[in-house]
From TrEMBL, chain A:
Keyword Signal: yes
Highest rank taxon of the organism: Archaea
Protein name (database record): ABC-type transport system, substrate-binding protein
Protein species of origin: Halogranum rubrum
Keywords: Signal, Transport
Any one cellular-component term (Gene Ontology): periplasmic space
Region feature (Disordered): 32-54, 199-224, 475-502
TrEMBL record, chain B:
Entry keyword NADP: no
CC per GO annotation: plasma membrane
GO BP terms, alphabetized: transmembrane transport
Annotated PROSITE patterns: ABC_TM1
Annotated TM spans: 12-32, 105-126, 138-163, 183-200, 240-266, 286-312
Protein name as catalogued: Peptide/nickel transport system permease protein
PANTHER family attached to this UniProt entry: DIPEPTIDE TRANSPORT SYSTEM PERMEASE PROTEIN DPPB-RELATED
ABC transmembrane type-1 domain residues: 99-309
InterPro entries with a match to the protein in the record: BPD_transp_1_N, MetI-like, MetI-like_sf
Compartment(s) where it occurs, according to its Swiss-Prot or TrEMBL record: Cell membrane
Pfam family, one: BPD_transp_1_N
Family stated for the protein in its record: Belongs to the binding-protein-dependent transport system permease family.
Length: 575, 322
């Protein structure tokens, strides 16, 4: 045995030497084969701050999630929109003060043709990044492409009541409406986030991937935009690099040479990069970390009321064992939730407790709701008695896994236990949660947060309530696997409703349509108030609180403008 | 059994392994709720459009048809294009562009683990129950117990934030652009990933050394007057390291898994980060390709270890690998 060992001794040594050599060679081989991808984003993530040797001022912005799509007709996420809004220009801009401003057009138009059309006149001298002039033909192409149902644009729903376009003159495009729609310009701020060159999206046969998901601009919008920054490169999981558009139509901006969006999903990594100076600005900050950032002298922070609402969806559909089909049970839950405590416990006091759907200090919020006491245990107990559940009941609350929502769910669970309501929490992955909410009747309540992009109350009253199929509350739906869309779900129309309505939802949709049509602000307000009150009276869903928008940036950065619905990074300067 | 036959036999076993893994992954993705169409189109999209997109992605076809279409393409190297991570980009390109980083990270972490684990294991065995051994065992226990993502965050806070090293907050620089900066940026990720492996190797080395040092031939060597250093390093260590080779080999595959968290914490655009993104976005094409790739790495690492082990230990070959 010993002789055997001796016999192999030399071989092993030779073998180890050979292994070492091969390891080195294989490592060299690996490096040699990966030239194309490896180095592509290096200078961006490796760059430590602002200026490089040629005095290029680069602003490093850390974002939490990868963008999806750089075609403005296809993006439906805020991540793509935040970057895309620098590559393209909105036709009608939404300012940080939540006001309308002309973007690519000379002015924000008033309706014409008895309120059945809007005329949009392009600014003179607009150019795409490739140097070509922006024409009315490009404008028409950009709108028509979204309106064409064959293209399955996910933002088609953000240009409602528009039946088509026509060229009025060589700078003016008319949008023709199916019905009067006074708030169209507000909807267009997020419905027309860019004009692209005619034909630039390619034909369906040329595209990579299915319709509604990809065009030629999806991953490479080089030369396509008109915005303050030009697209340079997108390295998945790493960065998106933009460079200054030297011919931008707006005087004085942009003020930095490059913006490098660093894709950093991990919170602690993002914040460490901000603290170390590798990142200049980030808007993705967990509430729990915000206070510590405020205490850092090298970092500036900002907070404004946000456009994300914490909401408890309720399944109105009558299904076996669903306690939420009973309006009194729903109301008991509504009056049993203390939004102020949730803001304190989960959002460290930052945010606004809701009095119904809309911002409580807005003139568009029902005065009756403004006065209403939303957290009222006595009222909740009375509702339980009316429901025949004086000792309470049990329901299941679905919550997205791994988020602040779980903590929020525990707070709600504790609050409702005080009035005898037992909450069973089930955590699900986000898409699985929505799959269950949209496509089944097998759920009771779901805690989620929801961001709406347009600061118009009629937009919020529509989204999630009106569409026939993707409805948050099973108020109605068109899914063939579920009962009839107007099966007995949800409350009836109000007793004083004028007209013949088969269901409360039917009344709601028709009444909202009236609000959207009228140009009379007072009339619009009265309708909106009535709809908001109806949602609360019947506890269609429970709107809890608006969380705040947070941002932090290094002290070398200035002129970042934060807004509730739109922030502006274009005028940012960096020392 | 000859070495060639032994290798051939092991190679043939790879086929059912890859088939089984691919079917399992395909099946799990098939039944997972919230498919790619819904994720792609967002929560408020029209049900009809979702069905159209499902159809265009081929997700409405029966399971076995989907599998056949995918497998027949994968066999010839066509792994499809990304659906949701970077739409339309060939999956092979996405993987290729990240291979260098992940392999560099895994190999350097393994190297660190070997450089720490083997000497620490030998010292622990030679100085059994003495302070050096206790220190070595405490180090190993810590290495195994501390999650690498937590260690990564601590390292970033110390080196990136407190000491403000520009390489201390992660990120990656290609070795072709700046080899020194490349290694600097990998120091902390390699430490975070390599320490747990070092602990495993230390424990394995120590126990094997203790067993080997009680063998008759070691006593004989000592009785023959060979110096203690020579006995330990030449006679004991060489034989004790044979099983350790197995741990090191298999560890290469394990490091790919560990790289998922390490790359996320250090913001390294490697295969692990790609995997996380693909799972979150239900990019079935990328997930399948990555699982297949990692399976191949595991299988070939195992095969290499088996062959190496058979080479180093003739008993394995003689009984046919049983």
């Amino acid at each position: 045995m010993a002789s055997n060992i001796t016999e192999y001794d030399i071989d092993r040594r030779q073998f180890l030497a050979l292994t070492g050599a091969l390891s080195g060679a294989s490592l060299a081989g690996c490096t040699g084969n990966s030239d194309s991808g490896g180095g592509s984003g290096t200078d961006s993530t490796g760059s430590s701050g602002g200026g490089s040797s040629d005095e290029t001022v680069r602003l490093n912005v850390a974002i939490a999630s990868e963008p999806w799509n750089f075609d403005p007709a296809l993006w439906a996420d805020t991540g793509s929109s935040a970057i895309g809004s620098l590559i393209y220009d909105e036709v009608i801009e939404l300012t940080p003060d939540s006001e309308l401003a002309p973007g690519l057009v000379k002015e924000v138009p008033k309706p014409t043709n008895d309120g059945m059309a809007f005329d949009y006149e392009l600014r003179d001298g607009l150019q795409f990044h490739n140097g070509d002039e922006v024409t009315v033909e490009d404008f028409k192409y950009s709108v028509d492409w979204i309106l064409n149902p064959d293209n399955n644009s996910p933002i088609r729903r953000r240009i409602p009541n528009v039946e088509g376009t026509e060229i009025v003159d060589d700078r003016t495009l008319r949008l023709n409406l199916t019905t009067q729609f006074s708030t169209l310009n507000w909807w267009l701020t997020r419905g027309l986030e860019g004009i692209v060159q005619k034909g630039s999206r390619g034909s369906a046969s040329e595209r990579e991937g299915p319709t509604g998901i990809a065009t030629n601009l999806t991953t490479d919008p080089s030369g396509a935009g008109t915005g303050p920054f030009e697209f340079v490169e997108w390295n998945t999981n790493e960065n998106v690099l933009l460079k200054k558009n030297e011919n931008y139509w707006k005087e004085g901006i942009p003020k930095v040479d490059e913006i490098n969006f660093q894709i950093m999903p991990e919170d602690s990594t993002r914040l460490a990069n901000l603290r170390s100076g590798t990142t200049d600005l980030t808007t993705s900050i967990p509430d729990k970390d915000f206070e510590s950032l405020k205490g850092d002298p090298s970092i500036k922070t900002g907070t404004v009321p946000g456009n994300t609402t914490e909401v408890l969806y309720l399944n109105l559909m009558e299904a076996e064992g669903n306690p939420m089909s009973n309006v009194n049970n729903r109301r008991a839950v509504q009056w049993g939730i203390d939004a102020e405590e949730i803001l304190d416990e989960i959002f460290y006091g930052r945010g606004v407790a809701q009095q119904g759907l809309w911002y409580p200090d807005s003139e568009w919020t029902s005065p009756k709701l403004k006065e209403m006491k939303m957290y009222d245990q006595e009222k909740a107990r009375r509702e339980l008695e009316k429901a025949g559940n004086p000792d309470g009941f049990t329901f299941e609350m679905l919550i997205t896994k791994g988020s602040h929502l779980k903590d929020q769910g525990v707070v709600i669970q504790n609050q409702l236990s005080k009035i005898g309501i037992d909450v069973e929490i089930t955590t699900l992955e986000k898409s699985a949660l929505f799959d269950q909410v949209y496509n089944t009747t097998d759920w009771h309540a779901a805690l989620e947060n929801w961001t709406n992009a347009v600061p118009v109350v009629t937009y919020w009253l529509s989204t999630g309530f009106v569409p026939n199929d993707r409805n948050h509350n099973n108020w109605h739906h068109a899914s063939p696997d579920l009962p009839d869309r107007y099966a007995p779900s949800g409350p009836p129309a109000p007793e004083d409703a004028e007209g013949d309505f088969s269901n409360g939802h039917d009344w709601y949709v028709q009444t909202l349509k009236k609000a959207q049509q009228t140009a009379d602000e007072q009339e619009q307000k009265e309708i909106v108030y009535r709809l908001q009150e109806y949602l609360v009276e019947n506890a269609i869903q429970i709107d809890i609180a608006y969380s705040s928008r947070l941002a932090a940036w290094s002290d070398s950065v200035s002129d970042y403008q934060m807004g509730s619905f739109a922030s502006d990074i274009r005028p940012v300067t960096k020392d | 059994m000859s070495t060639a036959r032994f290798i051939l036999k092991r190679l043939m076993l790879i086929v059912p392994v890859l088939f089984g893994v691919s079917v399992a992954v395909f099946g799990l993705l098939h039944i997972a709720p919230g498919g790619p169409a819904a994720v792609l189109l967002g929560p408020l999209q029209n049900e009809q459009i979702i069905q159209e997109v499902r159809s265009q992605l081929g997700l409405d076809k029966p399971f076995y048809v989907q599998y056949w279409l995918w497998a027949s393409s994968a066999i010839v190297g066509d792994l499809g294009t990304s659906w949701t991570v970077q739409q339309g980009t060939p999956v092979v390109d996405l993987i290729k562009s990240r291979l260098l980083l992940t392999f560099e990270l895994a190999l350097l972490a393994q190297l660190l683990a070997v450089l720490i684990g083997i000497p620490a294991g030998i010292i622990g065995a030679v100085r059994q129950n003495k302070p050096a051994d206790h220190l070595s065992r405490i180090g190993a226990l810590s290495g195994i117990s501390i999650p690498n993502f937590w260690l990564g965050i601590v390292l970033i806070m110390v080196f990136g934030v407190t000491f403000n090293f520009d390489w201390g907050t992660g990120g990656w620089i290609s070795p072709f652009e700046d080899p020194v900066a490349n290694l600097q940026h990998l120091i902390l990720p390699v430490i975070a990933l390599g320490t747990a492996r070092a602990a495993i190797i230390q424990r394995m080395t120590r126990s094997e050394m203790l067993e080997t040092m009680n063998q008759d031939y070691i006593r004989t060597a000592r009785a023959m007057g060979i110096s203690e250093r020579e006995v330990i390093l030449k006679d004991a260590t060489k034989n004790a390291l044979i099983p350790v080779v197995t741990v090191i080999g298999i560890g290469i595959g394990g490091l790919l898994n560990g790289a998922v968290l390490t790359e996320t914490v250090f913001n390294l655009p490697g295969l692990g980060k790609l995997f996380i993104t693909a799972i979150a976005r239900r990019d079935f094409e990328v997930i399948r390709a990555l699982v297949l790739f990692i399976t191949c790495v595991f299988v070939f690492a195992n095969l290499s270890v088996d062959v190496l082990y058979a080479y180093l230990n003739p008993k394995i070959r003689e009984d046919g690998g049983n």
